[in-house]
# Entry
Amino acid sequence: MRIESIRFPENYHRAMLSFQSNRREFLRMGVAGLGTAALEAAADDGSQRGAGWGRARSVLIVFTGGGQSQLEMWDPKPDAPEVVRGEFAAIRTPVPGTFLGEHTPRVAALADRYAILRSMSHEDLDHGSATYLALTGHYHRVRSGNPSVSPTDKPTFGSLLARVRPTSNFAHTAVHLNAPLFSPREPAPGQFAGLLGRDYEPLQVGGSLGDRIAMPGLTDQPGLPPVRVAARQKLLTAIDSYRKRLVANRHFDNKDTLYQQAWRMLANPACRQAFDLSQEPTALRDRYGRNRSGQSCLLARRLIEARVPLVTVMWNHNARGQDTAPEETDEYGWDTHNDIFMALRKHLLPRFDLSFSALLEDMEDRGLLDTTLVVCMGEFGRAPLVAREKSFAGTSPGRKHWAAAYSIVLAGAGVRPGTVYGATDRLAAYPRTEPVTPWDIGATIFHALGIDPHTTFTDSLGRPFQLTEGRPVTGLFG
# Structure
């Protein structure tokens, strides 16, 4: 077939230029009906929870910032024209009729252990605001942009969980690893406590490499026995009592919160040990991959074992780090405007295939998938048209941002393994069935934890907010 003869859907090229103008298509797919469904769910008295309710003790989010390409990974279209399907072939999985991209053979071999949700869809087209949407379940007031982090932001999922159901098993209810995610030059909003304040901030941990503990400050210090630590804490308490006589100062308050969090971690040996990767066998560390992504996934498993309720791994710490370090695989993000096939083949997919498959296998072997909901997702997908963009580095074609249709993966906590939820059209451009939004994923997370997604909480000023306006995707559970 000649490329000139391809018939794209009506308004396809206009959508490629500006998805914001494509609201009618979005409504046509039935997403508008989700608002009504959410209102109906909000009116539920709680007597009918649905499948998957309360199956998760913990949630592990693997966040692939920058936008994984559904066409090269989770939703290949081998029968589409080359300008749509790209250079990679599709490979079979153990699930009949389900194919994945050829450069994820380990993940493909595990397709009978997770569910692929292929009909994700929303309207935000830039990394910062879309990351905010993905990790809070709310659109940012600045749509399709890269806004700065603000204290008035909606809280990230982990902060919400800390507000409505804080844990007593660990020093923190939520931990972010390989964090924060830069999109691309400053931290993306949506990763922090926002309007809830410092008390509900997730613990942010940077890259985990080498044989050292992921947080060196938690190791026992020579010449500093517990009795001296206790004496220092008493001294700090005395200083704080004087400080409280001073005029109220927000910076002092923040410091006090951080001190309290640090004391809780130092006082808990299990908490300190959870961050010590040197306790893991060398072979297992190699299996995860000796890189920031792989070791962060391994650390996430250790934190889940330590009963941290919500762990988020920023699989890459920059949505587009390849611009400044094109030879450093650890710096690559999924924002592949140009050179997509080189970036995926050489840098992104081998590392992801190794670490994500290791995480799933390790979690299952240890029985952690029974009580842990694993969600692998990004902020959006990539466009169903291969083309070179002059405004970006690189010499070969890539794919633009695309939020109208993309894929995520879920496993554990009662999710039906080996299933595909939702479907896209022949170009992977729009959902054909079962459209799902980021706020629905937020609702699914709280639903799996046994928390009503429409629970109301208040901020420090007493203002009421709802956890999410979404509806749990109960069809994922069996």
Remarks:
- The chain has two domains: 3-12+20-33+54-213+282-476, 216-274.
- The first helix runs from residue 12 to 17.
- The first strand starts at residue 58 and ends at 63.
- The chain has 14 helices and 16 strands.
